[in-house]
Design a protein that fits this description.
- The protein is of the alpha/beta class.
- The chain has three domains: 192 residues, FAD/NAD(P)-binding domain (3-Layer(bba) Sandwich), CATH 3.50.50.60; 133 residues, FAD/NAD(P)-binding domain; 84 residues, no CATH class.
- 21% of the residues lie in helices and 32% in strands.
- It is built from nine helices and 27 strands.
- Strands 1, 2, 5, 6, 7, 8 and 19 form a seven-stranded mixed sheet that branches. Strands 10-17-11-12-13 form a five-stranded parallel sheet.
- Helix 1 runs parallel beside helix 2.
- The structure holds flavin-adenine dinucleotide.
- The site of flavin-adenine dinucleotide has 36 residues, from helix 1, strand 6, strand 9, helix 4 and helix 5.
């Protein structure tokens, strides 16, 4: 099968990319999704707060997905559900498997990667102790409660203050479980401020910063978790251990972009964002391969995920129509003072630069975000590692730039 654009993954990023690819002139677009339904992770996010920026509406995750799916259904984009992409070659040949079609080979003029991210599990943080039942990632617990109708436990400790863990603290409380506390190794929360307030403070669930789990006890089922304070080097402080009796430990300790396919295609991966090195058009290092959403970098809110999907879809259509070159000059975008990560990583002179910036350390007073050259200075009321800053720099300001763009966050 030959198509103009193939999109892998039907979360908000992939759905938006497919709609925009077709809307921007691609003649044939396919969307490949390994699950039975479109929508990605949104299907299990039944709380509200989605689409405030994009649609000026307060949707639940499934409502937000439905709105995109309705837009998709007005196009002739062909969707392959239950279809797992297993291989992706640098010359844009996709191999996928599905019970209905068997093995499929698709040769695409351009490709959009929209595979999302997965959660870090116990193995990636190495908590010592026994290996009983009752340890879940927050997203798995979310699926159990919101889709399958199971309560994963009754006395729950949450490790890490990522947004999914915060959501689950509230959700499990509403379902009658007791959430004893959320324990975060850093000195500041990793989830959004609004989620700390609405999911913890409103339900009197304590958040303990600078704490981590240093042990798990229980043979068949979790019986307790040992919690310790950490020092400024994030090492557990001896003598501060406390054993908390519980039957469940939820982990909300970070997300990892799913880039195994990207790597197969030879796409360069950024050590900072763990996603493809990308330009402002969402181009990866492989001509004709674009990226968007959480496979590109882990965004805070779905509106930003969709925004990158729109750009990637339009770029993929322009590439296949010969209106966007896959090998154009670019300058790197590099982190300066108090910047932990940046997205995109390169500017390729194709229009405005929409820059997502994550601070390294919190600054609770007005800051200046400086992009130099061209010497743009933008003021923001604060900078927090858990809330990406977003700045747009007009393309006209960048036209003469020949050196890497350095981005810094300074107190005003
Ligand atoms: C477990 C979990 C829970 C989350 N809960 C929340 C929440 O409550 N609130 C919130 O604001 N954000 C939540 N997020 C963040 C959420 O991921 C983003 O807001 C948004 O869904 C990201 O959109 P996406 O399109 O990039 O990825 P996703 O929504 O993850 O979609 C990616 C899609 O790609 C498909 N896919 C991946 N690999 C392949 C392949 N090889 N072949 C075919 N299909 C493939 C997947 O099945 C999936 O449908 C959660 C994330 C995770 C991982």
């Amino acid at each position: 099968m030959e198509v103009d654009v193939a999109v892998i993954g039907s979360g908000p990023a992939g759905l938006t990319a497919a709609i925009h690819a077709r809307g921007s002139g691609a003649r044939s677009v396919v969307l490949l999704e390994r699950e039975e339904e479109l929508g990605g992770i949104l299907k299990q996010c039944i709380h509200n707060g989605f689409g405030l920026e994009q649609f000026k509406q307060d949707y639940t995750g499934p409502e937000y997905a439905e709105r995109l799916i309705q837009d998709l259904e007005e196009t002739d984009v062909q969707c392959f559900l239950n279809t797992l992409v297993t291989d992706l070659s640098p010359d844009r040949v996709i191999t996928a498997l599905s019970p209905e079609h068997g093995a499929i080979e698709i040769s695409a003029g351009s490709i959009v990667l929209g595979m999302g991210c997965r959660e870090r599990a116990r193995g990636s943080i190495g908590i010592p102790g026994t290996r009983p039942a009752g340890i879940f990632t927050a997203g798995v617990a979310q699926r159990f409660v919101n889709i399958d109708g199971y309560l994963p436990g009754r006395r729950i400790v949450i490790l890490g203050s990522g947004d999914i863990g915060l959501m689950m603290a509230r959700r499990l409380t509403l379902e009658g479980a007791r959430v004893i506390g959320v324990y975060e190794i850093m000195g500041y929360p990793s989830g959004l401020k609004r989620n700390i307030v609405q999911c913890l403070d409103d339900f009197d669930i304590p958040l303990h910063l600078s704490h981590t789990a240093t042990g798990i006890t229980g043979k068949e089922r979790v019986e307790g978790v040992t919690i310790s304070k950490v020092d400024s080097d994030l090492r557990a402080v001896k003598g501060t251990e406390q054993l908390i009796t519980c039957d469940t430990l939820l982990l909300s300790v970070g997300l990892i972009p799913e880039n195994e396919l990207s790597q197969q295609a030879g796409v360069e991966i950024s050590a900072a964002t763990k996603g493809p090195v990308s330009t402002e058009t969402m181009a990866t290092s492989v001509p004709g391969v674009y990226t968007c959403g959480n496979v590109a970098t882990v965004f805070d809110i779905v509106d930003h995920v969709a925004q990158t999907g729109a750009t990637a879809g339009a770029s993929a259509a322009r590439y296949v129509g010969g209106r966007l070159n896959g090998d154009v000059p670019h300058v790197d975008i590099v982190p300066g003072e108090n910047v932990r990560l940046l997205f995109p990583h390169r500017y390729s002179f194709q229009g405005d630069l929409l820059l997502f910036i994550r601070a390294a350390e919190p600054v609770e007073k007005p800051v200046t975000v400086e992009v130099s050259p061209p010497g743009s200075r933008i003021t923001r009321p604060y900078a927090r590692p858990n809330e990406m800053l977003r700045v747009r720099i007009p393309g006209a300001k960048l036209a003469e730039v020949r050196h890497p763009l350095k981005v810094s966050i300074r107190e005003k």
